[in-house]
Amino acid sequence: MTVVTDTPFTPEPEATKSRPPTGTLLLSALRLWRTRVGLVLAGGMVAVALFGPFVAPHGPADFVGAPNSSSVGIFGTDHLGQDVLSRFLWGGRSVLAISAAATLIGLVLGVLVGLIAAYARNLLDDGLMRVMDVILAFPQIMLALVALVTLGAKTWLIVLAVGLTTMPRVARVIRGSAQPIVERDFVAAADALGVPRWRILFAEVLPNILSPLMVEASLRLTYAIGLVASLAFLGFTPNPNGADWGLMIFENRIALSVQPWGVMLPIIAIALLTLGTGLIGDGVARAATGIDRTRGSE
Amino acid sequence: MATEPSGSASEPVDVTVPGGPGPTGAAPGWRRALHVGGIPGFIVRRMLLGVLVLAAVSVVVFLATQALGDPARAILGRTATPTSLHALRKQLNLDQPVLTQYWHWVTGLLHGDAGTSLSANVPVTDYLRDRVVNSAFLVLLSGGISIPLAIAIGSYAALQRDRTFDVVTSIVTLAFAALPEFVVGLILVVVFSTTVFDVLPAIAAPGVRPWNDLKGMILPTATLVIAVTPYVVRIMRASMIEVLESDYVEMARLKGLPERQVLIRHALPNALGPTFQVIAINLAYLAGGVIVVEYLFNYQGIGGAMRDAVSTSDLPLVQALAMLIAALYVVLNLLADIATILVTPRLRTRL
Fold first, then answer.
1. pLDDT averaged over 10-residue windows placed end to end, chain A, 298 residues
2. Yes or no, beta carbons of A137 and B330 under 8 Å apart
3. Which of B63, B176, B182 to mutate to test the interface with A (most CBs of A within 10 A)?
């Protein structure tokens, strides 16, 4: 439905002949302070999620004291008398795993659809993008909720729902970036030489749109984390007793004024994580336009 | 959590019009047949497309809710007995062929009959009537605050390009765009209604219409404003920068027009074009964002109703709400496309 094509990275025709290797993009992104801060924030939270369970003083479901008490342990207990710190240290894995898997699915499908649509340039292009429009007619969180109604909050279902709603957003950007590339002579040459179509798409076109793809990847990961955490905050998690940052907020929200840590720790974690990935994405985007700009002026 | 537009703001904005082939473009036959020309033709084509999208949406909603798995068992949960399952299947027409069920549901919707809510046991339309108004009030209030605010901040940031105000704005909008809205909302609750200040209510007053409880509106509205404003600010800034570097703004300045007139008469109207798209996307996004925010603040609207309907597997209610929110989405996008065409003469002449 919408007609904004957010495709900032149409490379200059001359510039793409010697396109920057991905390494250059990452290196110049790393020179920006925002990328570094983002890496520290997101990296720190990923480390907490991955290694937290090894240093947690208690198991995620161990009963350690009276409910909502702030005198037990460092951060007190939650609504069931479980250790808040331990549940926090255990609770990052599910959020990260689900959102990473969903983002991956969304990126792979979105790149496939976007590339095919850009290359086909005909009814197939129209058809694919209209199907994407139908998915785009739902707010992401609503489609995920609708999917959960009958089947319940299964892990695979959340991954699939978030991934499928990410797909059309990626597809639009990829299609927009690939459209000028497929018009270029080297693609026509490869076509004339009889290079198989899938090879043209993945070996000739895809390497030329890696910068928008990387920007899109970090952006979509940021939103996927927010979406997965929001679903858990609404009470929809695969494991109703499991340790999960979003679910911790859902469970302990009532006791916010008595025992704020049960809510504050996971909130801080989700905030730092999404801020981190957001900053990385912005850094990569700036580096990509920076590269394009200097190359364009050459 | 923010969904829609890609947050990269420093890039030029490209507006294209699908369905409106250029004057020399070789349009396929079916398109030429629909090509009535001019703005009315464009609007008619977009409305037809919108109806098609909604029809497809209804199929998706139906498949996801009623054709997947066993809805009756999901609704009754552990309390299901063969008798109660049978009775519920009969009530929801689940014992009929899938196509009949779909037809029954869609024709019902078109006649304004969305079935009966299973948990509240009243017609869905009655259940939703007040809530739709409440949500509309919240969304319009948030939009009414955030859009002028965002246009002002974005334009000023463009004028102050690379100076302190611009740099700070860019960092703040980036941060707010990255944060999921329930995080923003809960931080506001922590700061303003519990530990730090305790001056505002953490939940909307129950049983009171929102316009009679303005104090309770502050936090939900603030959360939505914070969720939506960053995107509009960024696109407005990018668009304004592009316009300020254009020849006609330079021309206006060289003519010796006062700077105020250059900005308000020449720059601002041209910079608004691309912004309409993002505003519409974000207003539509508010329709989804209210799910989390209304639940968080216990606000009696369609978003909170959606969350509760999903958790109680209230099938007819979920279906009606999904169609309602999707329809809102489609209509807002349609309005945005029309507004963009109307304020962008260069696109208008291409029709």
1. 43 46 74 87 90 83 75 75 82 89 93 87 80 80 85 86 90 85 83 84 84 86 91 86 85 79 87 90 82 48
2. yes
3. B182
**Closest CA of chain B from A271, distance in Å:** 6
**Six-digit token string for B105:** 């549901």
Q: Is the dihedral of CA B91, B58, A107, B311 positive or negative?
A: negative
Q: A138: distance to nearest CA of chain B, Å?
A: 5
Residue A259: φ, ψ to 5°: -135, 80
Contact B178 A140 (CB under 8 A): no
In B, minimum Cα distance to A231 occurs at B292
DSSP code of residue A209: G
Contact between residue A146 and residue B324 where contact means Cβ atoms under 8 Å apart: no
Which ipTM score applies to this complex?
Answer: 0.81
> What one-character-per-residue DSSP string does B167-203 give?
HHHHHHHHHHHHS-HHHHHHHHHHHHHSSS---S-SS
In this prediction, residues B94-120 reach a mean pLDDT of 81
Q: How many CB pairs under 8 A join A and B?
A: 222
For residue B70, the chain A residues in CB contact (below 8 A) are 150
- φ and ψ at B194, to 5 degrees? -130, -95
Interface test with A, best of B186, B296, B328 (most A CBs within 10 A): B186
Residue A278 in 3-state DSSP? helix
pLDDT digits (tens, 9 = 90+) for A233-278: 888 888 877 888 888 888 888 777 777 888 888 899 999 999 999 8
Residues contacting residue B265 through CB under 8 Å, at least 6 positions apart = B252, B257
Query: What phi and psi values does residue A82 have, to the nearest 5 degrees?
Result: -95, 155
Give the integer Cα–Cα distance in Å for B158 and B167.
10
pTM for the structure as a whole: 0.83
Q: What's the CA gap between A4 and B208, in Å, rounded?
A: 40
Nearest CA in chain B to A173: B6
